[in-house]
Amino acid sequence: xxxxxxxxxxxxxxxxxxxxxxxxxxxxxxxxxxxxxxxxxxxxxxxxxxxxxxxxxxxxxxxxxxxxxxxxxxxxxxxxxxxxxxxxxxxxxxxxxxxxxxxxxxxxxxxxxxxxxxxxxxxxxxxxxxxxxxxxxxxxxxxxxxxxxxxxxxxxxxxxxxxxxxxxxxxxxxxxxxxxxxx
Length: 183
Ligand code: IMP
Description:
Elements: E1 6-11, H1 13-31, E2 37-42, H2 46-53, E3 61-69, E4 80-84, E5 94-102, H3 106-116, E6 122-130, E7 143-147, E8 153-154, E9 170-173
Parallel strand pairs: 2-3, 2-5, 5-6, 6-7
Antiparallel strand pairs: 1-9, 3-4, 8-9
The chain binds inosinic acid (IMP).
Residues 44, 69, 76, 99-108, 152-154, 158 line the site of inosinic acid (IMP).
């Protein structure tokens, strides 16, 4: 049953779960015994990280970063603030950034630049969703789930004012719920 605030389901739970299984398999095959460090971008990636981690069959470590972007809650400004940095050193490690969604790409572009400066052996991106029509900077997403239309979505880690992250599917919100947001 769908939450009553959801207008339309964009990705079903089944679609997401089979894609996550596929991504986990690919990561396992690609890294073998090179023990990647998966870096989840909080808060949104915590759901994907939990599911993806259990589909990876090779040794792997986890860490998290929390970032906030200045701007309204439905749009990113590109100016990113690190709220929680990594606990682990990534120098000489194989790093995979795990993101729920790439919208303009500005957050990820900033993060990649920041992490590259710490000299990892490799740096790749796993993102469940991208919004190709909203992309403003080129981002190479090696482990890609779904390309979705540029509408604002919630669920599977994604929130609207901190709610709906726990929905097992991804959907658009009924417009009356977020109309009148900031800028
Ligand atoms: P970007 O910098 O524009 O790529 O935005 C990336 C971040 O904005 C994501 O990690 C999400 O936290 C948030 N975001 C982007 N699109 C959506 C959406 O449709 N719903 C909820 N959060 C979103």
